[in-house]
């Protein structure tokens, strides 16, 4: 893997709905892409259920192993929304009324509508810093190196863009790619391994594709040194030609 | 969570391409759904990179904690395909030529094309049992409670359907749902918590939705006892009515 000098990230997707197959996750790809762009590459994702002991243990394990932990899901008003109190338990701090979050939600709801369930969304781990929610008011928060987002993609994305400028990232992780429809990856493999060995700071991946317009393989080089990625991809293109293929710059059309 | 008597499953998605955001995962939802149907509910997913120490350590951790572990990705012919040798290392067995896999691939390729890179796809942990690949020949395999699939969704799905009849599942996990466009979940929350408390063997989730046709909330009850799920959802519908909403059976249209 490249970019050893960059800070690292882990994502916890919290929610039974992904584990049951009800919901197609849409947060992993967004966060993976954006975190690479700001130089905090995503190193691991865990999808875990709405079980308090599991959430607490997992938060504590991964916050010790990664520079940043992002969580999605479980910060709404219903009984299955337990992320916030579990993060408080993981940090060993009280879970208590947050005056600013409380004031924002109290203003938002009509008189009498800021009920006990909704008040849970303004109850946060002591020491939490709010992450504004430009979509639906109820904020996310940061405590230590853990950043707690909503699970609804539109809200999660808005919260991420609020937080991102405050994160000290490293060099952006960039990629260059080339593909060919005429050479199976099994024939490129030996040459690819040699190219990867010559570029240990890059992460070179080989991804077969199956399209109505034809099958083929895309080779992607990722790293923080764009010149190195371009040089490696030029070597891959040469390898494709040597194997009788026609290299085409970039990824294949979707 | 319901269905304590059922065997449990963990999925390892192995591959830098999901962690970099290049690839939208399409395997979690499929396996989550099918595993629920055969009564081996998915309890955790991890997405991990193509790093040998990470794969070995993760396989060993989760195979001790779950009844079944499924892996996707990393069994092709290229340098970044290291799942098979890592599973051998995790089990502490030799990684060696598998005669039957070797024979299948040798028959499949034209003379001289079954090269060293492709021979890696016929090199498996000692004791592995093949999982047929009806799409592209190179097999997956089972060793102990670990089932190793390809990452390409079409191939992974075919391998799963080959394996599924051999797995001893529990009672299928079923779901019933009701939704309403007129009541925000914050007003249902207190009543929902009471319904969940009355049905501890069900897993009742509250999922807001945002559609061009209108916003609302879907309530889903999951478990192995369909009569209990139907009873709980009837109580939720009554709760929706009591809050001034019109309950509509099932999930909202996509």
Automatic annotation (TrEMBL), chains A, B:
UniProt cross-references to InterPro entries, sorted A to Z: CinA, FLAD1_M, MoaB/Mog-like_dom_sf, MoaB/Mog_dom
Residues spanning the membrane: none
MoaB/Mog domain sequence ranges: 10-170
Top-rank lineage group of the source organism: Bacteria
Coiled coil: none
PANTHER family referenced in this protein's UniProt entry, alphabetically: NICOTINAMIDE-NUCLEOTIDE AMIDOHYDROLASE PNCC, NMN AMIDOHYDROLASE-LIKE PROTEIN YFAY
Protein name per its UniProtKB record: Competence/damage-inducible protein A
